[in-house]
Structure formats: C-alpha cells, structure tokens
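hiii, so i know i said id send this last week but things got crazy w the move. better late than never?? heres the sequnce for the chain we talked about at the cafe, plus the structure i predicted for it. fair warning i was half asleep when i ran it
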Amino acid sequence: MAAQTSVRRVRHAAPRPSDAERRNAAAALQRALDRRDNGGATGHAN
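okay and structure toks below
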C-alpha cells in the first residue's frame, strides 16, 4: 500500500466584485426576499 501524503489544495476564488456589483447583488437578493415574504407569484403568504 502506498503511503499517502497530505496535500493542501487551495481553491482560488474569483476576483472580488466591485462595489457596484455588490450593491446590485444585494438589491437583487432583497427583491427576491421581498417577493417571497409578499407571497410571490402564488399570492400565498408564508
């Protein structure tokens, strides 16, 4: 049986988004949450 060595693999993240991209993503997330809270397409409240 071969000896196994521990190899650390580093996953490089994508480049950090710009401030405008972060704001747009946050706004889109908030809209999605608001739709969910307001019943969404079905009109049923949670």
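btw The chain has a mean pLDDT of 78. thought thatd interest u
miss u guys!!
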